[in-house]
Amino acid sequence: MSNDITWLTFFVLSVFVGIEVISKVSSTLHTPLMSGANAIHGVILLGAVLVAGDAEGFALVVALVAIVLAAVNMVGGFLVTDRMLQMFSRKPARREVQR
Length: 99
Prior knowledge:
mainly alpha
């Protein structure tokens, strides 16, 4: 079996496993789990960069797509986490103007 086909098989299987895992999470837990998953996305991004360094041909294209998707997913996770944390912060009290 070709090395490119092996990497493509790993990629396709990981997509199916990811879809199954995410679909089983209830919507109330999805946002807190996303904030914890940002570290995992960082590891995925690092792995995709390492694979892209040694890849050639079609495997390089798949690795570059993985880099883009992992980066978008990681940044999106940080943005959602930041928005979620802003919901729980206290707003400063308004000061009334004295006349």
